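Input record (one chain):
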Amino acid sequence: MTKIRRFRQTKIVATLGPASGDPDMMRRLFESGVDVFRLNFSHGTHAAHQKNVETARALEKEFGQPVALLADLQGPKLRIGKFKDGKIALKAGQQIRFDLEEALGDETRVQLPHPEVMEVLEVGSEILLDDGKVRVVIEEKGKGYLSAQVKAGDVLSDHKGFNVPGVLLPIAALTDKDKADLEAAASMGVDWIAQSFVQKPEDLVETKKLIGGRAALMAKIEKPSALEHIGDIIELCDGIMLARGDLGVEIPPENVPAVQKRIVRQVRHAGKPIIVATQMLESMVSNARPTRAEASDVATAVYDGADAVMLSAETAVGQYPVEAVSIMNRICEKTEIDSTYRRIVDADHPEVEEDASDAITVAATYVAEDIRAACIVNYTTSGSTVLRTVRQRPDVPILCLTQSLQAARRLVLSFGVRTYHITDVNSFAETVEKAVSFVKDKGFAQVGDKIVLTAGVPFGVKGTTNVLRIADVE
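The corresponding structure, as predicted from the sequence alone:
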């Protein structure tokens, strides 16, 4: 069995695509630092995604540790129609019409095949197209059409996406495609399903019902309306992805850093994982090295306390997928050993909940610090004990021993957690023995070190973490 050791706590999510969707490349990405593979259901076939799932499960067996899979649903992406020549030229000040007609567009009109959007837009509303590169303001509204003035942008091509900032859109949270993709992903055995363009808590209810406990649900925050309901959204889902691409189009760019810090903190305090995503090392799609600003962006997410940082186009279609993962790995490692990082993390410990399990896990963090333990070992049935430990952001690794393979895979996404699926322990004493053996075998501790262990009695019963033990590594 091949052994691999991560020295950072922050996890790395990498998107699979044409540049990375083969077994050899996935293996190289995993060895370079990938913890979670993202399957983007906006692209690719179910057969291609299934193949990648099988490759990931083969990596699990080869390296002896769980690999997490995240299926990202496309969501109700708004797009314009097509043009006679594939694209049109624009200039500031010109008038342009948006309508529902199926005819190909030209310099005077654009097909906008979304009557529900037409209905809610008003004079003065803004439409941002092609990730904000084109900006128009509506000056007239009629039956089935909008007349607008171009404020910025010089070209617009077929099927570009568009955003309407500040407008709560009356559209279904899940499209028919999303429902088919969700069922396919769940049947493949993915660990997380991410729902795109969540606007309000109610959007998550149907998705949770369709998942039926087969995977954990992640809400993607990319609409301003989601920020208004963020507390309820966090409560309903199992994790959050801060998707700064569309969000950064719909809110002022200068607001994004503060929103990132606030949301990361709120999700961490709720005891759930959060991914900071989109354009983190964007220049590495075509360059072998990132810009200094991009390196700082990744580091900022780590300083903020994110559980994971994500690569999108960099690994899906980029020319340097392995290099992108490697440099992200090094940025995370360097940031976490910076003294400033530890001061920031330690200054913001969540309050202890009125719960015995939470009290035990908080105590474990402080005991591990006081005795300079090599790591914290959580034996858990559902994974809730591990998530409680993660809230505290200890400065030592968190080893999760669990008899639930599903929990082991899901927890891979969480900060600092190394998960191991075990099936051969039947008592607390055996758990201690197994933990000591694991930390030595995996290189987390040496003879003479101490570890801090939490578990529950009666043994193996969900929600009964009530024992804290210090064990010597012999």
